[in-house]
Each structure stands twice: as C-alpha cells, then as structure tokens.
Amino acid sequence: MEIEIQLTNEPIGEKISPPSAAGGCGAWVEFHGVVRGEENGEKISALEYEAYPEMATREIRRLLEEISSKNPCLVAKVIHRLGTIPVGETAIYVGVAAKHRGEAIALLAEFMDCLKQDVPIWKRRALPAVSANVNLRTSGSGQSADSHRRLQKVLTLDDAISEIESRCQPLPAVRVPLAEAFGRVLRETVSAPEDFPDHDRSTRDGFAILNDDASEHFQIVDTLHAADWKPRDLKTGQAVRIATGAPLPCGNLRVVMQENAERDGDRIKILRRESGLNIRRRGEDVKAGAPLVKAGARLDAGKQALLATAGCAQPLVSPRLRVCHLTTGDEIVPPDQAPKPGQIRDSNSILIRGLMQSFPCDLEQHHLPENFEAARQLVSTLNLQPSTFNLLLVSGGASVGEKDFTRALLEWLGFEIIISQVNLRPGRPLIFGLKGTRVAFGLPGNPLSHFVCFHLFVAGALAKLTGHAASKYLRGKLADKLEDAPCPRETLWPARLEFLNGELRLRPLKWSSSGDVTCLVETNALIRVPVNQGSLAADATVDILPTAGMLDTGN
Amino acid sequence: MRILFFAQLKDVTGCDVIELAVSSPLTGEQFWKILIEKFPALANHQKNVRLARNWEYAGGETQFTNADEVALIPPVSGG
C-alpha cells in the first residue's frame, strides 16, 4: 500500500485529488475530522493541537500497515493539522483508495479508532469563545466557583506576596560555563576543594630564612618565583630568594623583606628583621570543605571569581529566563514619535527592559492592538509554548474598563487567575496568573505603578523561580516628614536613600498620584506606608524596599 | 539521554526537554524513579503515561541508555 503522511500547521485544503483509477482503484473514501464548537459543554473558538512528530508519523504508518494486512487497500493519505485550529476547520484528513469500497471504509474506521489510542497527538486545550466586550466577571474555561470568589477579593499586600511566593516554584537548574553564569542564581553550595592558600606562602619579595636563625650573613641557596614549588630544608646561614606569593620550601621559616637586606652576589646581610613573619598560612583564607558560595546566591563578579578559584567551571545555576512582555493601549506611541492629542509615549517597554536587566533572560516585546479580537489574533501568532517562555508580562489593560482585556487574554491563553486586585497604592489592579510553572502578571499601565509592582511582585516571583533568597524590607528612619492624607490602601511611597554627611538617609520624594513620573529620576527605594497612616514624622521608623542594586539586600 | 515531555506534562515539569546522563542502562522503573526525584509532581501522572524509546512505545523489558531519546506520552487525543 502506498502511504502518505503529513503533519502540518497550515489549514488542510478542501480539494484533495484522488489517486488515478488506472492502478485498479474502484473506491476513494475520504474523511474530514473537524473542530466542534463545543468541548465539555463549553462553547469554544478553537482547539490547539500538539504532536510528537517523529513518533506520530511512525505510529500512523505502523497502524496503516497493520490494518491493511486485514483490509488490503491501495493508497492511504493522512494529514493532521497542528497548532491552533478554529472551530469548523479540518483537524485530520484521511483518504483511502481500494479496489472496493468495503476494504477502504473498514480500514478508515479502524484506523481512526486506533489513532485516538496510540498516535502521540494531543488536543492541548480548548480556547474559550470570548466576546470582545469583556468585564471582570468574564468566565474562562475551567474556572471554579471558588476561584471566582477569590477573584472578587482585594488582597492585602502581604497576602498577595505570600500567595505569589507560595505558588511559584524554582525552575529546574542547569549547568552552564562559568562565563555565562553572571546574574544567575547558584543552586548548589560550592565548597572549597582544598585549603586556600594551599601552601604557606610569602607575602613579600625577600629572603626566607629559618625563623630562629640569628645569623647576620646568609648564603643564597635557591630562588623561588611565585609559581615555584620546590620543597627543601634550610640550614643555619642559608637563605632562599623568594617572590611574593611563592610557596615556602619548608616549615619554621620567616621572610625578611628585600629592603631590609643587603645583597652581594649570592650572599646577603640582614640589616633588620621585621616583627611579623611575612607568611600567609595554608588554609588561612578558607579551609578545605568550608562553603565558599552558598546555594541561593546571585552570582556577581566576586562570586564568579571565587568559583573560578575553586575550579567550579560549570556551576549549577538557575536557567536563563524567557520573558514575553506585551504592551496594550491605543494611546501609546513609540518614544521616537510625536504623540497626538490624548496619546502618550510608551515608557513601559524600556522600563521593563531595564528592570529585567538584573535577571539573565531573553526578552521579547510586542504591542497589542486595543481590539480584543485583533489582540488575540496577534497573540496566537506568538509562540507561547512552555519551552519558549517562563514569564509573561502584560502592561496596561489590568483595570475593569471595557478595553481592559488583560484578564480575558490570560484566561484565553489558559492561565488560572490567582490575583486580580491588591489593596495597594499605586498598583491596585494587579493581575497574577499561573499556568503550570509559567507565570503571568498584568501590570497597571502607568510607569510608577509598573515600577512598584515590578519590585513588589514580579521580582518576588522571579526570586522564587530562580531560587534566589529574596530581598526583604529594611528598617530605617525617615530623614524628612512624609506628608500624606490617610489612605485606605497600603502605599509604597517613592523615596531616595542617600549618604549625607556620612549618614545613610531616607528622603520621601514628592509624589501625589500614580500618574506622576518625575520622581522616578531619584527613586531608589520604596517606603511602606500602612493603611490609614497619613503623614509620618521625620525620624519615624519605616519599612524600606530598596529598588537599586547598590542596596540589594539579597545574598 | 534526551527526555521529552508533551501536552500537560510540559506544564507539570515546566519544560519540554531535558538532558540526563546515566551511568548504566535503566529499566522503566529506574527511569521513573529518577524522573520523579527531579519532578515530584510527575508521580501523579505515572500510571497514565506511557514511555517511548526512539519513537516507539517501550515494552516492560526496554532499557534506556544515554544514546536514547525517551518520551513521556500522556493519554493521546488526536483526530
């Protein structure tokens, strides 16, 4: 039997030509499996299919050959479409040619039954039918009544953070070359493989002599450079010329600085002995087996240098993250364009790009049209598979206005929405969703809310995903009064931590609404202002969340 | 060996492929034990998942070596 198998992401055409009748073909039976508009009682707009292509092709061939041994046919053609297939379109096409219709129909029927048991192709998920006019109560598929109740709820800041931290789990660690490990989180403690230094070493350029040798004149019997390892005993009256860092040739020595000796050929006269021995002892820095860099540490230049010293050339670290950032809103124009009345320039794309610099990642950014259907169409062209991203950030569209479709979009993508509102200023309409280990955030549109929500929530999730010991609040005193009316929402107030006359001082910045952006120039910390607090006096003790690397409190 | 995850197992493990080096060939049982240590959440799926070695379903006697491509096949739903 002649067999043709295709797995394709393209639509399957209506007309597929039958084989020529010249080969004895008396029947051409065709079957189109199409996507139904309903899945498990829910109206859907499309099904998403996935396959293990190499194996699916082999299995289909195996099944056809097996079945045709009972029902001899001439030709079988199987086309399975993969990816997103809209309702009404063909997911699978099977065409069978045989001498008589009986065999063709029997083969087709049995093949379809077997395909549904053995061929590694999956309906990945159903994409729910969503109207363009979405609101907060729009239901995604599979949302339980319980999660709906949760969605109505405005969480406190602490609850939101613990919810996020408890639901994000560390991604599997990977080994990478040390040179690529900068910024990654070390996932296993690396200990000293040997004593550092590994020998007693000289800390001076000079002459090594026996510690208790009171002679004035010495014979130079050897010269040791930094890399020389030449063990030997010294006798009274003997000296070894030794360079800084060179291993000492034996025990019970001292090094006399060259400035304190007079050299004449291979003889020296010691003018003066220093009080110290000028020796770094073996294991003085660290003993073999002692932890050098602990699991959970973010690797910086210093820690990388230490790993290199310890011979850890392939550290086990957090994987490089894949991040997709989508911006929404028709009012946004790129920074190089002049905004029309009512428009503003997009600052969130560059803000997110900059903030993500602290996390080794591949970041892709796209702008979504404000029409939900159009946005969905664009999103369906992006490859949002688990292998292609860990974190999805959506800027804007997190409120409950008609055009704020972030939630519906995330549900359509299959995310379970865990948080939709936090009692926070700025940044109340924060969305947090999960799909397996993939994390999504809908961030309120204005830049300051972005800044605050990133440091509070996104950075917290990233710390969990990478296995980093997360930053905690610092306690500190206000340098100036913080003037504010009592607010029923907890507030993260932009502030500047700076050194003034040798003291670290915390200065609240001028800020009145989440639309204010100028304070971002100076902000390097956020002050936590409790619910209904109102003004805080200078010298009041407050919780501070540092937002600049210099004050990063992580380890 | 190269281990592939499909469909909902991608969500469970958070990845679609991993590389695993083993010192000697593994039986199916040993393979599952190592995998569940790495991804504890897979334990709930084990009874519904078939293993494939080099694009064919594995039998009870199949051994898995470093040269193999091993796939975890959850219940299929094509067509």
Output the keywords.
heterodimer, A: 555 residues, alpha+beta, Aldehyde Oxidoreductase, domain 3, Molybdenum Cofactor Biosythetic Enzyme, Chain A, Molybdopterin biosynthesis moea protein, domain 2, 5 domains, 6-stranded mixed sheet, 34 strands, 31% strand, flat, disordered C terminus, B: 79 residues, Ubiquitin-like (UB roll), 5-stranded mixed sheet, two-stranded antiparallel sheet, 28% strand
Question: Would you write up a description of this structure?
Answer:
The complex is a heterodimer of chains A (555) and B (79). Chain A has nine helices and 34 strands. Chain A is flat, with a radius of gyration of 35 Å. Mean pLDDT of chain A is 87; it is low at 131-150 and 551-555. Chain B is 22% helix and 28% strand. Chain B has two helices and seven strands; from the N terminus they run βαββαββββ. Chain B has helices at 8-13, 28-38, and strands spanning 2-5, 17-19, 26-27, 50-53, 56-57, 63-64, 69-73. In chain B, strands 2-1-7-4-5 form a five-stranded mixed beta sheet. The longest helix of chain B has 11 residues, at 28-38. Chain B starts with a strand and ends in a 6-residue tail after the last strand. The chains are: A alpha+beta (555), B alpha+beta (79). The A-B interface holds A 33, 49-52, 54-56, 58, 80, 91-92, 112, 115-124, 169, 171-172, 385-387, 390, 435-438 and B 4, 6-7, 10-18, 38-39, 52, 55-57, 71, 73-74, 76-79.
Structural class, from helix and strand content of chain A? alpha+beta
> What would the principal axes of the Cα set say about the shape of chain B?
globular
User: What is the mean predicted local confidence, pLDDT of chain B?
Assistant: 92
What strand order characterises the main sheet of chain A? 15-12-14-13-17-16
Tell me the number of strands of chain A: 34
Q: Which structural category do the helix and sheet elements of chain B fall into?
A: alpha+beta
